[in-house]
Structures are given as C-alpha cells and as structure tokens.
Design a protein that fits this description.
alpha/beta, seven-stranded parallel beta sheet, 591 residues, 30% strand, 4 domains
C-alpha cells in the first residue's frame, strides 16, 4: 500500500511539473513578441548579451547607455542580441562650428553644394579655390554661391584669425583624443575590409588601411557613439552607402584616420572625418558630416552638409559626374545623372525633398573653334594688374602666408608669380635674448637642398618591397610637419617637393610626353590612364605642355596647372608616412 501511495504522489509531482512547463510554453507562445531575453553584461567599455527565445534581444547597463535591435520574425524561435556602449562622443570644440576645416587648402571643381561654414588656417584665402569667394572690405568672412554658410580665412578682420587658430588647435586635440581611446570593442575587424557588415556602437581599431567596398550599416539608437581608429588610409569604393539604422546619428560617428580618406564616386557617407592628412571626395560623393583635415580637402561636384544635432533626416543632391564631351571642338555636350537622396539610408527620394539649386544634367563643352586644332590654349585670361598683399603671418609648419587685400580688376585671376608671392618658406631661430625670429628661407641656403641632405644622413637600409608599393605616390612625412615627397616610379627614389615652385619644377622634371590624341583617349576612358602609367607625370606636347599627374589609386589624371595648383594637388593626394618608413626609401636629388 505504501509503495502505491508513493507512486501516486510522485506521479502527481511529475504531472504538476509537466503542467507548469506547459503553462509556461503556452504563455510564451501567446506573449512571445513582448518577452525580452535576459543578458549578461560584459565588463569594460562595451557589453554584449545573447539569448534564445521569441522576439527581441536586449542589452542594458542600468542607465542611459543601452541599446537593442530586433531579431527575426517574433513568431520564430531564434536568438537575439543586444549591447551596451559607454563610449563618449569626441569633443570637437570650436572645430565643430565648421563643416569643412583644413590647414593647407580647400578646392572644388564642378557644382559643389556646401551647407555649413568653411575655414582654413594657416594658409590664406587664396588656397580656397573653385568657390569664387566674395569678400566685402573689412568683413570677418567671405561668401560663395556654392556655400550656404560663411567662409573664414586668416587674413580676414578680427576675431576671425584668433577663432581659426582655436578651431585648428581643437581639431588637432580632438584627433589626438579620438586616436588615443583605449579598450576597443574590436581590433583588425575583417582584416581591414568592413564592407557588408552591420556594426553596433563602440570603438573599432585597425593598425593598417581600411576599405569599404560595399554598403556598411551602423545600427544603434540616438545615444550610440562609433569611433573608428584607422592607422592607414580609409578608402570607400564608388557607389557605397554608409547606412544609419535604428536611430543612429551621423553627429555621433567619428572616423579617425592617420592616412588619406578617399570617398568614391557617388558615395553616401555619414559621420565626422578627423584626418591627420588629406580628405578627398571624388565626383558626386555626398558627406553628411564634417571634413576636418590637418592638410587639405578636395571636392568634385559634391554635397557636404553639417549633420543634424537632433537626428532629423537630411537630404542631398547626388551627381554621377559628367560623361566625356561629345566633341573635341566646335561645342559638344556632356551629361550626368542627378538624384535626391536620403542621407541616412542612401535611398533615392522625391526631388522636392532636396533644397538648393538642382545641379545641371547637361552642359556645353569644348566650345573652342575646330580651326584652332581643338586647343583652348589661346583662350584669354583676366589676369590681375594690381595687387595689395597683407603682411606675412607667423611661420607655421615651415611656411608663411599672406592674403590679397585688394586686386584690380576686381574679378581678375592671380598669375603664377602672384600666387607664389602669397607664400614663402621660412624657419625660426631663437636669439641670445630668447626672442623667436622668423627667417624666410630665401635668405638662407636652398630649402630643397638642405632637407634632402638631412634626409640622406638619416637614411636606413633600403626596403625594396616598401619602395615598390609606394612608387608614384606622394608621401607626407607626418612627424616632420607633413613635408611632401614624390616617389619616382622609374628609379624608386623619393624627391622633396618643398615650396609650390619647387614642387612644380620637380614634377615637370619627370614628365613623359603624350600627344593630344593620346590625351583624348584617356578622357574618353573616364579621364583615366592605363595602369602602366600609374604615378607618372604626363605632358601634353600638343597643348602647350599641360601637365597631369596619374593618381596610382584610381589612375585618374589630375591637371597640375600653375605651381600653386600643382602643390595643392600633391598635398591633397598625399599619403601619411612615419619617419621610420620613409627613411627606408632612397633619397633622390635633381642636379
């Protein structure tokens, strides 16, 4: 009898247990979409949690810094995940007042559209090219039809010079802060290829180049902060979108790049770019963020808009870039595609959502008479006959700059000599009284010769593999205030570019002649040269010796123009390099 009772009671317990489990399962099926999995939070700056169940994954640190993303269909039993990021935004200081801020140059070609303020320092306003600046006498800023905002340069009325010095200093401090953050969420993610990924808020670190060949999604709410520490170059392939999901905001994204940042044709890019060297936006790229460069920013028919601080979606015009001209002379036509895009998603939207003037979809080209042989070299230029310069500013990074206070005629263009006269290389010494004295290098031995001799004395063992990889590149020696070198692809030696006139003469010294027919074939191929000419200087012998630099990264021809233009291009396309690496490349010298 006792055995029978024990069996009955044990059966009751078992039945009760089974009944309880069935009740839980029933509730789960009924209320599954509203049930959250529980997660364990890891220690450190970022925490992750995983769990199986119905519905959603959720992570929390018990405070404001918690995020969640949806899993699969709520009716499906699967895993969800959540995260916690305690990363704080980078304080841009006064640099945050600018949508573009650069130290050595800001240039544009095509119909660029900027929403926000531009600033340059220590280089003067003459190094802002392509914007047709309008400066009222005695004004603290200038304007441009391409800019919905104000443009600031050192030679303008107070307090602009002091404000720019502060902004540039804050930009450098912000870079140092962001590049020095520790405890990364991930290191060397994707071996530097992050295309196709979805990344949650956190700190990501790479010791080499980073490439984004396909769309990248940043998923997190309005509190999420992303910091990308990149020791090499950042290269985004053409047509790629950086997509913001689940409330992520461009204002909280920081791309911290030691090398060059290159956005490809028709890209849609989100976030603040803090670059220790140069930022290049190729034709039609859209930047919803800031371009803050410690050298130059180069634009080509781009849309750049300061990111919204409240998370509102913004819209921009996106241009495909003009096709080759339909005729080599006698007036032809070139066309492009123009669309309005959602900056967060990169999706095409109705044109009515975009503000500002819609860029042209076609324009005339090669309007010169065919009787001139297709050359426009005889076109007249409106050169300045009278100039008044300001005094030279402080010696900064080996250069002094001065602005043009007035010119005649008003709409004239500066000649080569006039542009060069607006700058001079310099050095500083401290006298016996402790006073710092600036000395123009025109009053001391050749700058090129002295720097070349110094680098020869510091040379290490030549690294052939490194030399071959960098042939044809422009190198910016980041530990020597960004002094520029050209690695000649023919002999593998590096040549110091020095001042604008020095760079111009050195680049022309290595020129390879080409005919107008050859040049036109390159233009028809998308303004690209064949790979065998990567890094070469090409001179059109049929068109007044016009010179072009073939960028090894995209094989595009970059017109060198006047000495100051050539110098700006060399700086813009430069790759940051350390002393240890550059001193493994042989030093060349033009006799």
């Amino acid at each position: 009898m006792n055995k029978i009772k024990k069996f009955i009671f044990s059966e009751k317990k078992l039945s009760g247990t089974i009944f309880g489990i069935l009740i839980i399962i029933a509730i789960a099926f009924t209320f599954g979409p509203n049930i959250y999995a529980q997660f364990a939070i890891q220690t450190g700056g970022t925490g992750y949690g995983y769990g199986y169940g119905y519905g959603y994954g959720h992570g929390s640190d018990g405070g404001a810094n918690s995020y969640r993303i949806t899993g699969n269909d709520p009716s499906t039993y699967d895993y969800g995940y959540g995260w916690v990021s305690n990363a704080s935004a980078v304080n841009l200081g006064a640099a945050g007042n600018f949508v573009i801020l650069a130290k050595t140059g800001i240039s544009t070609t095509g119909l660029t559209s900027i929403v926000g303020d531009l600033g340059i320092s220590p280089a003067p306003a003459t190094y802002i090219t392509g914007f047709s600046l309008n400066l009222t006498a005695g004004s603290a800023y200038s304007t441009s039809a391409l800019v919905t905002g104000k443009i600031y340069a050192p030679g303008y009325t107070d307090p602009t010079p002091a404000n720019l010095t502060t902004a540039v200093s804050n930009m450098e401090t912000a870079y140092t802060d962001a590049a020095g953050r520790t405890n990364p969420t991930a290191t060397e993610l994707g071996a530097g290829n992050i295309g196709g990924m979805t990344l949650v808020p956190g700190l990501y670190k790479w010791s080499s180049d980073v490439k984004i060949p396909t769309n990248l999604t940043l998923s997190g709410d309005a509190n999420g902060v992303w910091i990308f520490q990149i020791a090499g170059n950042l290269t985004v392939s053409s047509g790629v979108h950086i997509i913001l999901s689940s409330g992520a905001q461009a204002n909280n994204i920081f791309w911290v790049v030691a090398g060059q940042t290159t956005l490809g044709t028709a890209d849609v890019f989100n976030g603040n770019i803090l670059d220790q060297t140069a930022i290049v936006l190729q034709t039609g790229a859209v930047l919803n963020g800031r371009a803050l460069a410690q050298s130059a920013v180069t634009l080509d028919a781009n849309s750049v808009i300061v990111p919204s601080e409240n998370g509102d979606i913004t819209y921009s015009w996106s241009q495909s870039g003009f096709s080759a001209c339909s005729a080599t002379c006698g007036t032809g036509t070139k066309t492009q595609t123009v669309i309005c895009i959602n900056n967060n998603s990169g999706q095409t939207v109705n044109n009515s959502l975009c503000t500002g003037t819609e860029p042209n979809t076609s324009q005339a080209c090669n309007i010169q008479s065919c009787s001139s042989g297709g050359s426009s070299s005889s076109a007249s230029t409106n050169s300045c006959t009278t100039l008044i310069y300001s005094t030279f500013g402080a010696c900064t990074n080996g250069f002094q700059f001065r602005s043009v206070v007035s010119k005649s005629p008003t709409s004239c263009s500066l000649t080569t000599a006039q542009q060069i006269a607006a700058q001079q290389a310099c050095t500083t010494i401290t006298n016996a009284n402790g006073e710092v004295i600036t000395i123009p290098t025109s009053e001391e031995p050749s700058l090129v010769a002295s720097v070349t001799a110094l680098e020869k004395s510091l040379m290490k063992k030549i690294n052939s593999a490194l030399t071959n990889r960098l042939k044809g590149r422009i190198l910016l020696q980041i530990q020597e205030k960004g002094q520029a070198w050209y690695v000649n692809p023919l002999d593998g030696s590096k040549y110091y570019l020095g001042r604008a006139a020095d760079a111009f003469s050195i680049m022309r010294a290595f020129g390879l002649g080409m005919s107008n027919k050859t040049y036109n074939s390159f233009v028809a191929a998308g303004n690209k040269a064949p790979a065998r000419l990567a890094g070469r200087i090409l001179i059109n012998v049929d068109d007044s010796g016009k010179a072009y630099y073939v960028n090894p990264l995209d094989l595009k021809l970059n017109y060198l123009g006047k000495p100051a233009d050539a110098y700006s291009i060399m700086r813009t396309l430069g790759l940051g390099i350390t002393n240890d690496n550059i001193r493994q490349i042989k030093v060349g010298e033009i006799k």
